[in-house]
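Dear Dr. K.,

Following up on our conversation at the group meeting, I've run the structure prediction for Photosystem I subunit O from Hevea brasiliensis. I'm pasting the input sequence below exactly as I used it, so you can double-check it against your construct before we proceed with anything downstream. Let me know if the numbering doesn't match what you have in your notebook.
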Amino acid sequence: MATTLATLSTVVGLGSSSLSCPSPISSPRRVPLISGFVKSAVTARNPLRQTGANGGKFMCFERDWLRTDLNVIGFGLIGWLAPSSIPAINGKSLTGLFFESIGTELAHFPTPPPLTSQFWLWLITWHLGLFLCLTFGQIGFKGRTEDYFN
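The predicted structure tokens came back this morning:
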């Protein structure tokens, strides 16, 4: 039988603090936080009340923070498929071995592949290479278009 303990947590620090508000969540007034580490009083602000700065909208990231560029994805995929399709492993390519192992494992579909199957080696190797090509492609393409390397 497991028991759960719930306790009130207190903040212990050096210096004094003035947190005398009975309920900081229900109180609309600002609570000053004063500590021995901070030279001036810091006011706790509610970020939900600061809507005026962004015209009433809540913005956490840039609009296009992921900066998805189909050129990077396309060139990264081609940049990985081309070298991984070279028959360098006993006359077979990494892509061919990976797709062949998918077909072999799908032949006995309801049962998963065993841990000793070559499928896992080809899966991890192929996807690691793809991830590296896409990552370095993103760094190189965006670095060149935004003049990081000058």
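Two things stood out to me. The first strand starts at residue 32 and ends at 33. The longest helix spans residues 118-145.

Best regards,
J.T.
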